[in-house]
Amino acid sequence: MPEALRTLVAGEASGLVLALDESLSFWGGFESESGTIIDQAHPQVGESLAGRVVTMAVGRGSSSASTVLAEAIRLGTGPAALIMREPDEIVNLGAIVADELYGITMPVLIVDQTTFDAVASAERATISAAGSITF
What we know:
The chain is an alpha/beta fold. α2 links the parallel β5 and β6. α2 runs parallel beside α3. A seven-stranded mixed beta sheet has the order 1-7-6-5-2-8-9, sandwiched between helices. Strands 3-4 form a two-stranded antiparallel ribbon. The protein has one domain: Glucose Oxidase, domain 1, CATH 3.50.30.10. The mean pLDDT is 95. It starts with 5 loop residues before the first strand and ends with a strand. It contains four helices and nine strands.
């Protein structure tokens, strides 16, 4: 059971894993109403993030992305959790806002490359409140 290097947003979550092949901008690349990747240039266009434990190495772009992510979390169409290699303040802000305004937590964890690869290749993952990951 690996531990997060850093827990940026604490919480519990469980779900099927979706390993993103590339970073995703939640602003313009994701539709909060459906939870779907809409960026036509993204390798996983059409995939739903709703309720999934999403691995994404780094964030990508636009300060407005935090608003889109917070709205998706509120609507129940956002990821169950995000596991990343590097912190992204915009993603963190979206998760923090959803927790503060709506009382809905989406954990955000930073992990090492070995853990990232292991989770990305798993079918399902669970995040504990303490930041441990089982898959």
